[in-house]
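A common beginner's mistake is to predict each chain separately and then try to dock the pieces by hand. The better habit, illustrated here, is to supply every component at once so that their relative placement is modeled jointly.
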Amino acid sequence: MTEIPEHLRKRAEAARAKAAEQAAEGDAPAEAPAAEAGEPAAAPSGEASRIPAHLLERSKSAKARKEGATAEPAAAAPAAAAAGGGVATAVASAAPPPTATGPGGHTQRLLTVVKAGSIQDVKATPVDKVHTWPHLIAVEFVAALAVLAFTLIFSVFVNAPLLELANINNTPNPSKAPWYFLGLQELLTMFHPMVAGVTIPGMGIFLLILAPYIDRNPSNKPEDRKFAVSLFTVQLMFWAVLVIIGSFFRGPGFNFVAPWTQGLFFEL
Amino acid sequence: MERPGGKKSPGQRVSEIVDKTQGSQAWNSIFRPGSVFRKGYTDSPRNRSYVIMNSVLYHLHPVKVKRHAVKVSYTLCLGGLSFFLFILLTITGIFLMFFYRPTAAQAWNDIYTLQTSVTFGLLVRNMHRWAAHLMVLSVFLHMARVFYHGAYKPPREFNWVIGVILLTLTLLLSFTGYLLPWDQLALWAVTVGTNMMGYTPVFGDQVRFVLLGGKEIGTDTLLRWYVLHVLFVPFVTVIFLAIHFWRVRKDGGISGPL
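With all components supplied together, the output reads:
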């Protein structure tokens, strides 16, 4: 069985109670349809009807005239009598209105008005949008083309390094990790390898993953999140500085060198 | 315009061929309604929608995006460019695979031969190398951009997590590729790297053994890292990329405006 929402059920009950009350105080709505049709002027006076009295009268007399016209050939005498003035009564007795009509002779009733808000909950507010094609696709295409061009031209002029064949017995001095790990290698000079090589990067990745769950501040405005922004910037700078030192300022034996005097010890 | 003698001008002939091609069943089966390549494409709001909706692009982009999302200064295209570099790396990488055998005896010679006697070999290898470094950089900058825009905040928390995983996978992709030329640079960079990982508490030796495929760096390590580099890590990356892109749309498109 369908669940009827509580508020709707209450509203329906209230409406029913009101209708019963009205029926009790004025008997007009409860009148038999036949009797009503017999006295066209009586029904509109009832509180239940919202159709203006003169309109209702007009439609009833029109209906009666039509009925009378069809009935004419069958019975000439009653028709003559009807012409005399007793139109409504004669027709009513000949063809009673449909039995399923409601109060006031209406064949339909308004049960309830359901407002849009109660069945569809619109949360989204209109957003200023543009078509992806061509606006976004064009931008992406140009960006991709620019990067492709840059890579291609750079590759024409700068060759990827290929040193001599790997030799386990000949350790180059210095031996450096790829540039993005040079920050870690730099840490290696300060901490125990387990701390520098595993604990710190592990914690870093872990904290990075947790960032959205740690930062509970709902705002994305830079002025509202000065702490988060400065913390992140300090982290970025910290790694950038370590990578730069490891890349350019470390020479043989991973000792400090000045790249402008002793040259670069760095391969990409 | 008919020329005297019923001859058609080359321009007419070309346009006739174009018409015939664009009207053919094959052409229309390839390009779905609304495609810019279809006959009689006109720039209308309806067709602009169809271009996305009726093409494979619909897997990446919605029909409409927020106006501020189109501004280059907001995203700097970093995420999209990382993906583009990934594709570029796949293409150049497949080319390199034709000329490379991952054994200690052959790897270095193969690279050397590729550079000296294969057409465009040197260029493609350069592109692969530089694009790889560029991708590490762009993924990193993408992360910074997302952080500074607070774009990891609800409902996008989990997509940030996937993003961090993708960053790690990018580093792994780059690092596994580093060994493959089998030169002094590769060997000793990887030695430094794997020695560091060997300090993992409790099972450090096992981690090192698994990574190297033995006690020392050798031909087994090369094969292992080759398979990781060309198959395993890209495979995992593609899966995470798919989730990443899907979540971008499911979480309400691009974040902002600030």
